[in-house]
Design goal:
Layout: E1 22-26, H1 31-42, E2 46-51, H2 56-65, E3 68-71, E4 88-91, H3 107-135, E5 138-142, H4 155-175, E6 181-187, H5 193-203, H6 207-220, H7 229-240, E7 251-254, H8 263-267, H9 275-307, E8 342-345, E9 349-352, H10 356-361
Parallel strand pairs: 1-2, 1-4, 2-3, 4-5, 5-6, 6-7
Antiparallel strand pairs: 8-9
Helix pairs in contact: 1-7, 3-4, 5-6
C-alpha cells in the first residue's frame, strides 16, 4: 500500500484512471463540486465540469486544475464538444433555498426544489448514460443524510433527497447489466457556503450569529466538527476508481456520526431548521390550553350549580347562562372529551350539556 499527494490510497493496485479517461462533474462550481474537480484532476482524470453561474471562481478553478468548464445549459444531447466516452459521471447539483415546514412551503417552491435536485439528476443521468456505456463507467450522485433520514423544516429538500435514493437504486439495477454502476454519497453537515446560507436564513445575516449557529451544529456532531469538502471528494474518487466497481446501488454516509445518534439528538443537530416548525406546533399547544380552560370553566359551573344553588359563576358555555357575553358559546368543541355528551333541546337542537340540571331534565334519545 502506498500513499502520495498525487494519488489515492492503493489497495491491491493503482486507483488511477486509464490514460485519457474522462469524468463529467455536473455542478462543479460549488464548494463540494470544486473539491471533487480538484481531486479527480489530481488523480489523473480528464475532467469536464458544468457551472450555473460563471465568475472569477470558475475561472480560477480552470486555471488551477486545467479542467474544462461548460455552462450547465450545454449539457444536453446534440451539443458539440462534449466527450463521447465517459469513465465517470458525478452529479453534484442541489439546492436548499428555503427552510419551511409543510404548512409554509409554497407548492411552486416545493416543485422547484424537486425539479432541481431530482428531475435534473434524472435528466443528467439519462444524458450521460450512452457515453458511460461506451466507457463502462460509473455514476456517483451527491445526495444528503436527509435522503436516509427525515428532519422537520426542510420538507422539499428531504423529499427530493429521498427520491435521489430511489433513483440511485433504480439506476444501479437497470444500468448494471450494461456495465455501468451507480452509487450515492450522503454528506452530513459540510463546511460550505450552503451550510452558512441555511443558518443565515434563520438567525439573520449577522456573521457572528451565523458562526455561532454553525459551531453549535459542529459541537453536536460526534467527531466535534463539520465534514470537509475534501473528504467528500476523496470518497467520490474511490467510487469512480476501477477498484470500486463491485459497489453498485450503495449509499455511502459521510456525516461524522450524525446518523449514528438517536432520533432526538439528530433533530437538535439542525436547531435553526426546526424553529418555524415549532412556531406552527405552538398553535396546537395554545389550542390545547384553551381546551383545558374551557373544561375547567365547565366543571366550575357544574359544581356551582350542584352545590351552591342560586349562585352563578358568570360563565356560560352555551349562551344561556348568566354571563352577558357568553364568550364560549360559539366554541362547543373546546369541551374536548365532553364532545360526546350532548342533550336534546326543543328550541336549539343538539347542544353541549352544561349543567346537571340540564342533563336531568333532558329527554332520553
Amino acid at each position: 500500500m502506498s500513499i502520495g499527494r498525487d494519488r489515492t490510497v492503493g489497495f491491491d493496485g493503482d486507483l488511477r484512471p486509464a490514460a485519457g479517461e474522462v469524468a463529467l462533474v455536473a455542478g462543479g462550481s460549488g464548494d463540494i463540486g470544486a473539491a471533487i474537480v480538484r481531486r479527480l484532476r489530481t488523480d489523473g482524470w480528464e475532467v469536464v465540469f458544468s457551472f450555473n453561474r460563471g465568475g472569477p471562481a470558475v475561472a480560477e478553478l480552470v486555471r488551477q486544475t486545467g479542467a474544462h468548464a461548460v455552462p450547465f445549459t450545454d449539457l444536453r444531447p446534440g451539443v458539440s464538444g462534449l466527450p463521447e466516452v465517459l469513465g465517470a459521471f458525478v452529479n453534484c447539483v442541489g439546492v436548499n433555498p428555503v427552510d419551511e415546514d409543510v404548512l409554509h412551503t409554497p407548492v411552486d417552491m416545493f416543485r422547484e426544489i424537486v425539479e432541481t435536485n431530482l428531475v435534473e439528476a434524472f435528466r443528467m443521468a439519462k444524458f450521460a448514460l450512452p457515453s458511460l456505456v461506451k466507457g463502462r463507467g460509473t455514476i456517483v450522485n451527491i445526495s444528503s443524510i436527509w435522503g436516509v433520514r427525515a428532519v422537520e423544516g426542510i420538507v422539499g429538500y428531504v423529499a427530493s433527497k429521498h427520491g435521489m435514493r430511489g433513483l440511485t437504486a433504480t439506476l444501479a439495477r437497470e444500468c448494471g447489466p450494461m456495465g455501468v454502476t451507480c452509487n450515492e454519497i450522503c454528506p452530513g453537515a459540510v463546511e460550505s457556503r450552503m451550510m452558512r446560507e441555511c443558518a443565515a436564513r434563520d438567525v439573520g445575516r449577522d456573521p457572528v450569529r451565523v458562526e455561532e449557529a454553525v459551531r453549535s451544529v459542529a459541537a453536536r456532531t460526534p467527531i466535534g466538527r463539520l465534514v470537509k469538502a475534501d473528504e467528500i471528494a476523496a470518497a467520490v474518487a474511490f467510487l469512480c476508481s476501477h477498484q470500486c466497481r463491485g459497489m453498485n446501488g450503495a449509499s455511502v454516509v459521510i456525516d461524522g456520526g450524525m446518523t449514528a445518534r438517536d432520533r432526538e439528538s439528530l433533530r437538535h443537530l439542525d436547531p435553526w431548521r426546526t424553529s418555524r416548525f415549532h412556531r406552527a406546533m405552538a398553535i396546537d399547544v395554545e389550542w390545547r390550553a384553551c381546551s383545558l380552560v374551557a373544561r375547567g370553566a365547565w366543571c366550575l359551573r357544574r359544581w356551582t350549580t350542584a352545590c351552591l344553588p342560586g349562585r352563578s359563576t358568570g360563565l356560560s358555555l352555551s349562551g344561556t347562562g348568566s354571563g352577558s357575553s357568553a364568550p364560549l358559546a360559539g366554541f362547543p368543541w373546546l369541551l374536548g372529551d365532553q364532545r360526546g355528551r350532548r342533550t336534546r333541546s326543543s328550541d336549539s337542537g343538539w347542544r353541549p350539556a352544561i349543567s346537571p340540571t340540564a342533563i336531568r331534565s333532558s329527554p332520553s334519545s
